[in-house]
Amino acid sequence: MTRRVGRRPDGTLFGLVIALVVAGGCLVGGTSDPGGAPAPDQPRSAPSGTATTRADGTDTVEEFQQDVADARSIAERYWSEQFRASGQRFQPIRRVIPYQRDGEVTCGGQEIPRNNAVYCSAGDFIAYDIRWSFGAFRQIGDAFVFYLLGHEYAHGIQTRLGIRYSFTIQQELQADCMAGAYLGDSVRSEALRIDDGDLEEFREGLLAVGDAPDQPWFAEGSHGSPEQRAEAFFRGYERSLDACDLT
């Protein structure tokens, strides 16, 4: 069954702007120790102090929770199909964990801070700050959730394929490309739909994020300049996984 993001009557993806703030602190190593983390995909209450509600009405915990579940489901189906086509067995990422406090979730003994979303390879889980994510969801729209899961899920796929680069910027730009392929292929398969003009808004959002100009490309944690990230994402979006150097 296909799912379409967006709350307007035509079911289209709306407001693809500045969604890419999500990838600022991806973790791809370490040993998991989720401890007392809340159950996956279960927001406990609407966070207070979030941004103004969008005009398209994407503002409730229930909508956010459903979009997280849908984004995860579409990613699992997409990557399952890709692995099956190549004759490989696919294992979905084990857990998707919302958290609210610094240190509530750890990866290899390293506390995951607030205002972040990460993939922890040893524990095979994605963790995201629910207050930060829900605030961005209300301000930006549901596209944020699908990119958030798409980028972090790409790190899980890199782990499954044994991909590990010398520099984090290589790992991150490839994950941007893979997220673009996941979204582009999902649009082409009609699992997701977009309106005319949304891609240009998405491009403008991509160009608004990225490493600071004085961030060395070779530094640990570098993700790439805004131009590099936009180029990587749209290369995947337009040309699918063939553009992402997975071989």
Q: What does this protein look like?
A:
The protein is mostly helical and about 250 residues long. Helix content is about 40%, strand content about 10%. It contains six helices and six strands. The protein has a three-stranded antiparallel β-sheet, with no helix packed on it. Strands 2-6-5 form a three-stranded mixed β-sheet. Strand 3 (about 105) and strand 4 (about 110) form a beta hairpin. Helix 1 runs parallel beside helix 3. The relative contact order is 0.19. The model is unreliable at about 5-25 and about 30-55 (pLDDT under 50).
Briefly summarize what is shown.
By secondary structure, the chain is mainly alpha-helical.
Query: What's the total helix number?
Result: 6
Give the strand tally.
Answer: 6
Sum up the overall morphology in one term. Answer: globular
SS-derived structural category:
mainly alpha
Sheet with most strands? 3 strands, antiparallel
Please state roughly what percent of the residues sit in beta strands, choosing from under 5%, 5-15%, 15-25%, 25-35%, 35-45% or over 45%.
5-15%
Task: Give the fraction of residues assigned to helices.
Answer: 40-55%
N to C succession of SSEs? EHEEEEEHHHHH
* Low-pLDDT regions: 4-24, 28-56
Compute the separation of the termini in Å: 30 Å
Overall pLDDT metric: 77
Radius of gyration: 17 Å
Strand order of the largest sheet: 1-3-4
